[in-house]
Design a protein that fits this description.
With 275 residues, this protein is an alpha+beta fold. Helices cover 44% and strands 7% of the residues. It has 11 helices and 6 strands. Strands 2-1-5-6 form a 4-stranded antiparallel sheet. The longest helix has 20 residues. The structure holds zinc ion (2 copies).
């Protein structure tokens, strides 16, 4: 035992992948920008994140909400405290300036929920390695623009994302034409290049969710499915019953056991409890 340990080096590191960002915003998973606190539970979020979240929740309620349940602990809060400079702060009361959340559909919510769920072996089910090995990445995917738009909308909780969508599409297209011109020495190299270039392109917009986004993008492309079929395959894999997404899909395929490694935002589940 001691012998084996001494071989691994002089400074044993119990955590091989230390989190470079120990206290991220629970919503965007990136370092908190414009620190904001809920007034009762004092959970901390980015200002933009908690405002968007509030708008997303408001969309589901018939009357304008006058309070917000914390996405982390469910405590009822009535305002968001921000701009604290040591002596003063500002307060945003929930219920003011709501709107612009009509676009956020059930499908958007389901996609956002995927960002907080460990998807298990879905990459195998959707044949990701076959996609790269068989060089299917050289083909264009006509479902991609619509899928990308919805995905970015879901992740950013923002309706107008067309500029970002076209940016990402452009990056994918130029990668593809590059691959067509010059073939890479190995499949791994292509896949690695894809991940690196796409992460770089998406990070300014998606920050802490970039890695997951690139993963989801790869899954979607590799699946070769259209949006509906992709949603169904995904929901079925996770064992999620989502109206409009997993209609009459009562096959015997066992859903995987999925664990939540990420902060669990209860609000994503709210609707499935209710009706
Ligand atoms: Zn945030
Ligand atoms: Zn809280």
């Amino acid at each position: 035992m001691a012998e084996a340990e001494s071989l691994t080096g002089s400074s044993p590191d119990p955590d091989p992948d230390p989190d470079p960002n120990p206290n991220p915003c629970p919503i965007c998973l990136a370092p908190v920008t414009q620190e904001s606190y809920l007034d009762q539970c004092f959970h901390k979020f980015c200002y933009n994140c908690i405002i968007r979240w509030t708008n997303t929740v408001a969309r589901k309620q018939s009357r304008a909400p006058s309070s917000l349940n914390c996405p982390l602990c469910k405590t009822e809060n009535s305002s968001i405290i921000y701009g604290y400079d040591g002596t003063s702060f500002q307060q945003h009361y929930v219920g003011k300036n709501m709107g612009n959340s009509e676009f956020f559909s059930e499908a958007h919510r389901y996609r956002l929920k995927c960002y907080y769920t460990e998807p298990g072996n879905i990459a195998d089910k959707l044949h990701v390695s076959r996609y790269w090995k068989s060089r299917k990445y050289l083909q264009q995917n006509r479902f991609l623009p619509d899928w990308l738009r919805r995905e970015i909308q879901a992740v950013m909780q923002e309706e107008d994302v067309d500029i970002i969508m076209h940016h990402i599409l452009g990056v994918i297209e130029s990668l593809r034409s590059d691959w067509l011109k010059t073939s890479r020495p190995s499949t791994e190299m292509v896949q690695e290049e894809f991940r690196m270039v796409l992460s770089e392109a998406a990070r300014p917009f998606l920050t802490g969710r970039t890695e997951k986004f690139v993963n989801e993008l790869e899954l979607f492309l590799a699946s070769g499915l259209n949006i509906d079929a992709f949603d169904k395959a995904y929901a079925k894999h996770l064992g999620w019953k989502i109206p409009k997404i997993s209609e009459n899909n009562d096959d015997d395929d066992e859903p995987i056991e999925h664990t939540c490694a990420l902060p669990y935002l209860y609000i994503l589940d709210e609707e499935s409890d209710g009706s």
